[in-house]
Structures are given as C-alpha cells and as structure tokens.
Amino acid sequence: FPVTIRFIDLALRTIGKGISLFDSATDAEVLRKAKLMYPNRIGTKVADFRIKTLTGNETTLLSASGLYKLVFFYDPDCHHCKVSFPAVKSFAKDFRDKGVEVYAVSTGIDRQELDSFIAMFGTEPNLHYVWDPNVQTRTFRDSYHIPSTPTIYLVNQAGVCLARSIASAELVPVLNHIINN
C-alpha cells in the first residue's frame, strides 16, 4: 500500500497543482485515477453508505455491527467473484468469534443473478448480502473505487480502512496481522 499512497500524493501534489509530469492527456488520466483512489485510503475513515439487506433491513456501513467489517464488492455474474467467494465465506465462518461481519455488496442490478449467486454459495450468520439496484441515486458506487470485481475493503468498528484491494486468499493473514499487532 505505500506505493499506492505515494502515487496518490505525488499526483495530487504535482499535477493537481498544475505541474505537468507527462503530456497533457497522460497528466489528466493520472490525476483522474489518483482522485478516484483518494477516498477510503488505508488509515482514513471510509465513506458511509446505505446497506439494504435482501430481507429489507436497512442501516449504514458505519453503524452496522462488527468489530471488523469486511466489505466484498462483487458482481454475481463475475467469474473471479465466484472463484474468490468460497474464501470469503470461509473467512466469515472462521473469524465470526473475532467480531468479523462480512457485507457482500452486489454491484449488479439483476436480482435473478444475485439469487443464483446466493443459492450457489449459501450464507453464514455473519455474512450479509447487500443489494442496491438503484443506479439513479447516490450509492456506494459514488464513494468507492471499484475498478474491477471483486474488490475488498477491511474496515474497523470506527470506520477506518485497515486494508483494501486485497485478494480473498490474503484475508486470513492480513486480519491475523492486524489482530496480533
């Protein structure tokens, strides 16, 4: 993550202040990417968004339960998401007693695809499927950099980003490191 932070800081301190590093088109693209990645950086409080479960319960990410909140942004029709999800589900099960709550946030808008995904993988008591098909209002899509799916964020109870853009295979060692340090 230090490379990402340096990239963001360099882009904002130079190109963002009118200093050209490349040609104008490249500068504009680098600055655009840095601005997209700026919110929800590791060590900062993440943007809050509305969580609506499939049963109709509604809260916000920051007020939702969990000493640690794993936010798994996925598309129910995404091959990589389907490959990654068993590790996420196992993580939810194995770390339930450590206060982990998993919020699986569908980026898709097709309810049938979502229902098929859930039927394929099932659930755990601390695994919450979240769906917001309304793309006309402000949602997580406006506040989170999700360049591809799956995209994973690990957030503590205070809403501070502990990790982001990690692979599902890294979840156990990352959280064990956080808990033990």
Describe the structure concisely for a colleague.
This protein is 35% helix and 19% strand. The protein has 181 residues and is an alpha/beta fold.
Q: Would you identify the regions where 5 or more consecutive residues have pLDDT less than 50?
A: none
Major β-sheet strand ordering: 5-4-3-6-7
- Spell the H/E element sequence: HHEEEHEHEEEH
> What is the distance, rounded to the nearest whole angstrom, between the alpha carbons of the first and last residues?
17 Å
Radius of gyration: 17 Å
- SS content category: alpha/beta
Number of strands: 7
What fraction of the residues are assigned to beta strands by DSSP?
Answer: 15-25%
Shape summary: globular
- Summarize the main sheet: 5 strands, mixed
DSSP helical segment count:
5
What's the rounded overall pLDDT mean? 91
Instruction: Summarize the amount of helix as a percent range.
Output: 25-40%
Q: What is this structure's SSE topology?
A:
Layout: H1 2-13, H2 24-37, E1 50-52, E2 58-60, E3 68-74, H3 79-94, E4 100-106, H4 111-121, E5 127-131, E6 151-156, E7 161-164, H5 171-180
Parallel strand pairs: 3-4, 4-5
Antiparallel strand pairs: 1-2, 3-6, 6-7
Helix pairs in contact: 1-2
Structure, described:
By secondary structure, this protein is of the alpha/beta class. It contains five helices and seven strands, in the order ααβββαβαβββα. It has helices spanning 2-13, 24-37, 79-94, 111-121, 171-180; strands at 50-52, 58-60, 68-74, 100-106, 127-131, 151-156, 161-164. The strands form two sheets. Strands 5-4-3-6-7 form a five-stranded mixed beta sheet, with helices on one face. β6 (151-156) and β7 form a beta hairpin. α1 (2-13) packs across α2.
